[in-house]
Specification:
Length: 356
């Protein structure tokens, strides 16, 4: 029998089987030598002895080795949860293929669901309502069109805005600047910033006209200023005034006490996919973690684990968008824009504050 066996992952797989962890479903199956049956990790059947268990990458590999699928957990069929996720994925593909907005009832009918259940499931899977998802998609298209040098009017209509007046009412919020400025790479926008020290080391907080646009962490203030310049290459960077310094104090308070609420306006700029990921990150409770795979599943793109990691790496708002709460599937701490040790420190701070 050619079992999918990897000593580095064997114990974590067995632990998933023992705890019937449904998050492991689809990642592997286990087979029992004494019964000749293969199952999902979450199968509710009685646990076999560890010595009788083999692991396979998928059902096809297990069947090829002589095992038959369990009739109880049916590992050869999609789970009900995966079927629901597939429907939402289908709905997202439909939205991406159309330029005009779609109403909830029309979209729900195309995936054979009631509007009420579709709306609830869409929000659960993607982290956004169908309306908010379409809005984020239009914003992404607009940025892409403007970045390619398209005339403003053409870009507005190609992105899916129904009228010029409809767009211009939202322009500042969408881009954080005028469309013309965005098309020119953010030219002439002014960004205030302050550099200082806190419990996490050196920090830089920056603000555009629309809100806090960057919170950077590091070990050297000048390096952080250089990073800000690279993030906003065509903007005018100026030292923050007294009013902004008061806002920075509120940001620092949250950096050192992440469980505190944060109510300052944010200038969050990213693709539709990045915004989905960042919204999912903000829903992870303080003191808890999630894996990259968990986040990919929550936004309805279970295969986009690497893309989720990329969105975390692109985050410019440390702690406020808590990418430090994302860990590897085995719970190991790895990958953080501002250093793994700082990520570990943040998680320890949150754990301490939860115990207080």
């Amino acid at each position: 029998m050619n079992a999918f066996f990897d000593k580095a992952n064997d114990e974590s797989r067995w632990q998933a089987v023992e705890t019937r962890d449904n998050r492991a479903d689809g990642q592997f199956v286990f087979a029992v030598k004494t019964t000749g049956i293969c199952c999902r990790p979450s199968c509710r059947a009685r646990h076999p002895l560890r010595k009788n268990v083999l692991f396979f990458e998928n059902v096809a590999a297990a069947v090829g080795a002589g095992f038959r699928p369990c009739k109880r957990c049916q590992p050869d069929k999609q789970t009900a949860e995966q079927q629901r996720i597939d429907r939402i994925t289908q709905a997202c593909r439909i939205l991406e293929s159309r330029s005009e907005p779609m109403v909830l009832a029309e979209l729900a009918a195309l995936v054979a669901m009631s509007p009420f259940h579709f709306h609830r499931l869409f929000k659960q899977v993607t982290g956004l309502t169908p309306h908010a998802w379409q809005k984020a998609l239009r914003e992404k298209r607009l940025r892409e069109q403007l970045a390619q040098g398209e005339p403003v009017t053409r870009a507005v209509f190609d992105a899916g805005y129904q009228s010029g007046s409809n767009y211009y009412q939202q322009a500042d919020k969408v881009l954080g600047m005028t469309a013309k400025q965005y098309r020119q790479g953010g030219e002439r926008t002014v960004i205030q910033f302050v550099v200082g020290s806190c419990r996490l080391g050196e920090f830089l907080v920056a603000q555009s006209e629309r809100g806090i646009c960057a919170i950077l962490l590091g070990n050297d203030g000048q390096t952080l200023v250089n990073e800000l310049e690279s993030l906003f290459p065509n903007s005018a960077l100026v030292a923050g005034d007294e009013l902004f310094s008061q806002r920075v104090a509120r940001v620092v308070s949250v950096l050192e006490h992440p469980s505190q609420p944060f109510s300052l306006p944010l200038d969050i700029q990213g693709t539709a996919f990045q915004q989905q990921v960042w919204q999912a990150l903000r829903e992870i409770p303080v003191g808890q973690t999630a894996s990259y795979r968990d986040i990919a599943q929550r936004i309805g793109k279970p295969q986009a684990v690497r893309a989720v990691a990329g969105a975390c790496a692109a985050n410019k708002l440390a702690v406020i968008i808590p990418c430090h709460r994302v860990v590897r599937n085995d719970g190991a701490i790895s990958g953080y824009r501002w250093g793994v040790e700082r990520k570990r420190q943040l998680l320890e701070i949150e754990a301490e504050q939860q115990e207080e």
